[in-house]
Specification:
By secondary structure, this protein is an alpha+beta fold. The chain is built from five helices and eight strands.
Length: 173
């Protein structure tokens, strides 16, 4: 347990609290936390230490995810091996850009040449000229993406990830 100023983000305390427990020989096999203490990075760090970080995950961003009326980023199929994303209308991405956001690796994908302006489902996808999405890396993304019949992570293992507001475990590799 730790006490901090109200302005300190909960997620910044996950690792220091776990380290304090480890120093006392009290490292848990499972660590149950609330939404403020979960992120893909923290789940993967815990996994590397042999701990299942379990807690509600934040809902995907974007108006489509929040309104449940349209295509959220999680509705796109990402083939990490071939670096080929496909939109819910089966159009493939025109660009895949490795980048960084707040010091963390990300992949930016856009569908600039995929025909977004004339797509019959454009209103479900974006109000912009074309759809762009930014994702965490493959290892981080598989902690969030629900499994479907056509999607497997780069390792080929199955992924089981809950819907928002449910309990999450990052799959073992």
């Amino acid at each position: 347990m730790a006490t901090t100023a109200a302005s300190v983000d909960d997620a910044t305390m996950t690792e220091p609290v776990r380290q304090g427990l480890a120093r006392r020989g009290m490292t848990p096999a499972e660590d149950y936390v609330d939404c403020g203490y979960t992120s893909a990075k923290l789940i993967l760090q815990a996994r590397a230490d042999g701990i299942d970080l379990i807690g509600p995950v934040k809902q995907a961003g974007g108006h489509q995810a929040h309104s449940a009326n349209g295509y959220a980023a999680t509705d796109f199929h990402i083939d990490w091996e071939t670096r080929q994303p496909t939109c819910p209308q089966s159009k493939t991405s025109s660009r895949w850009i490795d980048t960084r956001e707040n010091g963390e690796p990300r992949v930016h994908i856009d569908f600039y040449r995929a025909g977004c302006p004339t797509c019959p489902a454009k209103a479900l996808c974006t109000t912009a000229a074309y759809r762009g999405i930014t994702l965490r890396t493959a290892n981080s993304t598989r902690c969030w993406k629900p499994t479907d019949a056509t999607s497997t992570p780069p390792s080929g293992s199955s992924v089981t990830t809950p819907e928002p507001e449910s309990r999450a475990r990052c799959p073992r590799q």
